[in-house]
Specification:
Elements: H1 3-17, H2 21-40, H3 48-71, H4 77-87, H5 96-108, H6 118-130, H7 136-148
């Protein structure tokens, strides 16, 4: 089952349950946005990677809204609920220890860890290794810190 099919299935379940209108509206919008990506790219089914990108975009926007609401002292409960719903479609975060170990292995295989291009090579290798679970905001600082010590 593709990620988009999973979201569609969850939308159907939420509609049948009729208990959480916010979840229904969020999933309906998410399905529409994700399906549009594939349709715009040649009237085909949206891939899991494209669906994941849409989910990440939704999370990023919701997190920015959360920051803004908090800044102005507004209620953040509904946005936190949205983020929790969206998080169920994201891959599990990679533990920091595993990232550090992977970076150490990658750096050990580099010809020149002091080269300016080293961080780019490490990031590329991390993306290949962790796929959708790659989170640059967490992994890149770890990679930079380890490269600086080499």
């Amino acid at each position: 089952m593709s990620l988009l099919e999973k979201i569609r299935s969850d939308l159907v379940e939420a509609r049948k349950a009729r208990t959480d209108n916010a979840k229904i509206m969020l999933l309906n919008t998410l399905v529409g946005e994700a399906a549009r990506v594939g349709k715009d790219a040649g009237n085909r089914e949206t891939t899991d990677a494209e669906t994941m990108a849409v989910v990440k975009k939704f999370v990023k926007n919701a997190e920015q809204t959360l920051v803004d609401l908090t800044k102005y002292g507004r209620d953040t409960g509904s946005i936190q609920n949205e983020i929790a719903i969206l998080a169920t479609y994201l891959p599990a975060a990679v533990p920091v220890g595993e990232v550090e170990k992977a970076v150490e292995e990658i750096v050990a295989g580099l010809d020149d860890p002091k080269a300016k291009s080293a961080i780019g090579m490490v990031n590329k290798a991390l993306k290949e290794r962790f796929g959708d679970a790659f989170d640059g905001s967490t992994m890149v600082p770890i990679a930079k810190r380890i490269l600086e010590t080499k």
